[in-house]
Amino acid sequence: MYDDSSVAEQDVIEEKQCAKNEVWMDCPSCEERCGEKPKVTHSLLINQSKWLLIRFQPCPRICQPARCHCPAHKGYRRDAQGNCIFCHKSAQH
Question: Which Gene3D superfamilies match (predicted)?
Answer without folding.
Answer: Laminin (2.10.25.10)
